[in-house]
Design goal:
Elements lengths: L2 E3 L44 E3 L8 E3 L5 H5 L10 E9 L6 H5 L10 E6 L4 E4 L3 E11 L4 E12 L4 E8 L6 E3 L5 E10 L2 E12 L5 E6 L4 E9 L2 E8 L3 E8 L4 E7 L6 E5 L3 E6 L2 E6 L6 E3 L1
Length: 301
Amino acid sequence: MKISIIALGFIILSCGNNKMEHSGISESKIPGNDSEGISIQNGQDQQVNTVLSHTEFEKLTVEVDTNNPFWKKYKEFANPNSNVISFPGNKPLSDFISDNGIKNYDRKFEKPPLVESAFVPYSRTFKSEKWTAVGYTIIYRDEDSSLGCESELTVHNSDGEMCFNLKGIEININEIVVTDDGKYVCFSYGIDDEYGALLNEGYRIYDIGSKKIIAEEKFSGQYYNVHPGSMHNNIKIGMLKDGPNSFYVIYDFRNSTRYKYEYLPGPDKQLVKITEGGFVFKANGIFDTLLFKNIAVKETF
């Protein structure tokens, strides 16, 4: 999934051949979304105003809009009637984003870019019985294109305690997932506009305790619709590749192993479930399981 900005202050939501711009995902888009085997979080409503824990609604209330750190930071320049922040004069992008952050973008600039305004998309959220996560992003722009972005990510437990907060993330946040044990948080990213990709789609995984990046992968244009999900205490990344092919990355943290698997969906091979141990396929009415340990493409991390 990639956030697409076609005009300043608007998000275009569409499913195309090379990107998806919606913060949620239809269950039919990623095969194998079965609640008994894998939890793919669909509830990342762009216009959510309040995130509540499932276990005790009264205990945890995160006011997403009013607590947005970027609205607070640039309050004097914000337009109360839109998602746009207008800065007086032009400021170098380097005033907002580090040199390393700028180098990470896939759009290269012929001369140092100047920031005229910023776009603040609706916040991204994740909710489970144990964890609530909120991701905030601001996208810096010149007159008509995206130049860079910055994000902040927080995770609360069901008692309302903040157990993770990271500022100054110089990529955007699309979809978020937290493992059941609360040890890892993962999010997808990607931005494009009418001039192409500022940031190709990818994902990043943090260790919640240390706040360190333990895994990241950014894809070329042949991969799109990147969606993270949680399987018990593991993480699954699902995406599409080269049109009809489905591609999965599974992180098995207990065994420190990453599995990669690609297949072509069809009537003779339908993925009906992803369990903690492997992929469950159905062909001609017969179920068959491909165990992760038998997948050829795997590596330790």
